[in-house]
């Protein structure tokens, strides 16, 4: 089959099997297998598509596996990141947090940056690639996620990957910036997640009873790693804009920022000195 035929077949197959966003998934799957970008579909519509691979993709999509895991990679900010079972799929709203960090960090001379709970490394690695004068430490606890982090960081000289629990102590230089997109879903809401999100690791999502456990850890344990003029950047759940302020007692100038959809999504805060 060529690209056009494979797309028509895949769309019909996914639709008939009740897979949501069948059109988008069919297009992404076929382009991924054909090794072309989405925008190149028309100009490559006669290219050959490996049917064995397509059959495998379609079967996995039918069983509810996320498109990104099936493809094994996903675009984030200005790069492609390897993803798969065991690691959180980078989200578009996290690109906004990444942009915020880059905008601030580019005014600093040689910023030292920690990306806590780094997962695939999408935030830290994107910042490091954009700012060659920065040095980024990415800390991740899950061994499964860490494999992707290391793979994504390969060849990026200004990133160090650390397999570790942010509850523990680390031997690190003082940081200018700490950024984190930690797990922030309330434990009670975990069972209400969409079928595909449930395929992502619960360790990447579950933020404890009120969703704020990890912000408290960052508040209690990580202030000491920040320089006195250091700054904290966090992603939060859309309903956490108010409660986050109580969790961050060691920080001042706490500003909640909205994402492009108009939801509270990011927090910027300064260290309280003393
Ligand atoms: C919401 S995901 C974010 C991943 C990535 N930063 C992103 O934005 O796509 C949270 C990550 O925190 C990791 N994690 C959970 N508990 C941790 C801990 N105690 N220490 C370090 N990382 C942890 C999870 O394995 C997961 O990769």
Task: Explain this structure.
- Strands 5-4-3-6-7-9-8 form a seven-stranded mixed beta sheet, covered by helices on one side. A two-stranded antiparallel ribbon has the order 1-2.
- It has 274 residues and is of the alpha/beta class.
- It contains nine helices and nine strands.
- It folds into two domains: 3-64; 84-271, Vaccinia Virus protein VP39 (Rossmann fold).
- S-adenosylmethionine (SAM) is lined by residues 88, 90, 94, 117-120, 122-123, 139-142, 145, 165-167, 181-183, 203-204.
Q: What is the CATH class designation of the largest domain?
A: Alpha Beta
Report strand order across the widest sheet: 5-4-3-6-7-9-8
Q: What CATH architecture label of the largest domain applies?
A: 3-Layer(aba) Sandwich
- Strand fraction band? 15-25%
Query: Would you identify the regions where 5 or more consecutive residues have pLDDT less than 50?
Result: none
Q: Quote the distance from N terminus to C terminus.
A: 67 Å
**Structural class computed from helices and strand pairing:** alpha/beta
CATH topology of the largest domain: Rossmann fold
CATH homologous superfamily heading of the largest domain: Vaccinia Virus protein VP39
Number of helices: 9
Percent of residues in helical segments?
Answer: 25-40%
Helix/strand order, N-terminal first: HHHHEEHEHEHEEHEHEE
What small molecules accompany the polymer chains?
Answer: S-adenosylmethionine
Shape: globular
Mean pLDDT: 96
- The radius of gyration is 20 Å
Per DSSP E runs of 2 or more residues, the count of β-strands stands at: 9
Biggest beta sheet summary: 7 strands, mixed
Q: Count the domains.
A: 2
């Amino acid at each position: 089959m060529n690209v056009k035929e494979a797309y028509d077949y895949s769309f019909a197959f996914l639709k008939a099997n009740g897979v949501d966003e069948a059109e988008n998934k069919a297009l992404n799957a076929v382009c991924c297998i054909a090794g072309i970008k989405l925008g190149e579909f028309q100009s490559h519509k006669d290219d050959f598509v490996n049917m064995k691979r397509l059959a495998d993709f379609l079967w996995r999509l039918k069983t509810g596996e996320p498109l990104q895991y099936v493809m094994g990679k996903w675009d984030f900010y200005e790069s492609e990141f390897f993803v798969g079972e065991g690691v959180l799929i980078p989200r578009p709203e996290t690109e906004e947090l990444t942009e915020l960090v880059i905008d601030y960090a580019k005014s600093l001379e040689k910023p030292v940056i920690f990306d806590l709970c780094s997962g695939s490394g999408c935030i830290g690695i994107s910042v490091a690639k954009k700012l060659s004068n920065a040095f980024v430490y990415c800390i991740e606890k899950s061994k499964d996620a860490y494999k992707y982090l290391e793979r994504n960081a390969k060849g990026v000289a200004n990133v160090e990957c650390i397999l570790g629990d942010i509850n523990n102590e680390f031997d690190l230089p003082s940081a200018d910036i700490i950024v984190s997109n930690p797990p922030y879903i309330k434990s009670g809401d975990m069972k209400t997640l969409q079928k595909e999100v449930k395929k992502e690791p619960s360790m990447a999502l579950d933020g404890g009873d009120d969703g704020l456990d990890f912000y408290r850890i960052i508040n209690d344990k990580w202030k000491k790693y920040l320089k006195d003029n250091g700054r904290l950047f966090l992603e939060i759940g859309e309903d956490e804009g108010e409660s986050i302020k109580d969790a961050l007692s060691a920080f001042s100038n706490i500003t909640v920022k909205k994402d492009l959809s108009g939801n509270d999504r990011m927090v910027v805060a300064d260290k309280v000195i003393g």
